[in-house]
Amino acid sequence: MTKKLAFASVLTALTAIFLCASVYLPTGRIAFLMLSTFCILVTQAECGTRYSLLAYVASSAIGLLFLPIKLQLLLFVAFLGYYPIVKRYIEQIQNLWLEWPVKILFFSAVLVVAYFAAQYILIPRIELGIVADYVFSHLPAIVLAAEVIFVIYDILLTMLASYYMNVIQPKLRLW
Question: Structure pTM?
Answer without folding.
Answer: 0.85
